[in-house]
Structure prediction request, 381 residues.
Amino acid sequence: MNTPDRIYSLPNLRFTQWLVDPGRNVPPDIRVALVGGLFGSLPIFFGGIINTLLVAALITLRRPEPLFFLWLGLEALVCASRIVVLVSARRLALTGRPTPTDLYVVLALGWAGTVGYGTFSSLTSGDWIAATLACLSAASMVGGICVRNFGAPRLSAVMVALSVGPCVLAALFTQEPIFWLVLVQVPLYMTSMSMASYRLNRMLVSTMLAERENERQARQDSLTGLLNRYGLFRALDLAVGRASQGTAEFAVLYLDLDGFKAVNDTYGHGTGDALLKQVSERLLALKPPGAEAGRIGGDEFVLLMRLDGDEDIRRFSDRIIDSVRQPYDLQQGLPVFIGGSIGIALIPRHGADTAAVLHAADRALYLAKSAGKSRAAMAQL
Prediction:
């Protein structure tokens, strides 16, 4: 599936979008992850290619006729194309560029179609050794199709129909009435395998939703909805990693509220919690797109943001301080006033790891407090 460094594109064509649609009420990020699953399970992918190429080659060797030469040629062309597109997509996904998902899905259908064509040709040839080998190959492919593509159950169902469905049509052309059993057997088999794909898909989506919710709860501060310490540290680790590669520069704003303890002592913890919620709402309203805001503990907040060339981080810190010291309506009859001091550290300038950056920001916060509070100070080298 998708990994943090490999993201595959959703398809653009309406037909391929319909094929990979996992169902209703599936969030976009999980849809992307499910599409990424179509590019995984490489042992099954290459095992299927090797099997179908080998079967097509052996039957063509046994029956060197135009129908089978055509089958072998189509099989080789489609398999080679699938490999090229797969390798290209994995490389593009690593660099964050759009991947040829539409072509990849269409080629998957083409591959299933070549399997079905070979099965139909073998059955109608009257060579029961070739027919047995082709049918066994097609049936074995169904399991791999379902296991590898159950993230897209419609695609799985169509591929199953294309690969073994031609057996039903071929049965009408044989001279063996006993073979007409497949008119019932194969549709039941296709239906059961397709239903299994849908069930597996529902189980996978449910599991991914549960994992996402657990991850959200693990990363989110229950009081304010901001990132908690764990979530913030993860975000900082990612920022430090990107900064070390020279691809970005970040700023860490360490905010500590001035006068919060007096509010807590005077009005109680319930009022103090309400105040923290309103502070977090103001931070969320000010933070730039892509920035992360977290509550690191008590009345301490951290804002992590990417530095743009035109961004004056000191001016932005002053905007936060001005916002924090605006009056708060906490249903106490009179407005409540507090302040805020900010320590600023830059990544990677003030630290090569998360601990060093936070220490630098904390030291800068101490400088801001020592200079009279309700102000910002930059970390010193």
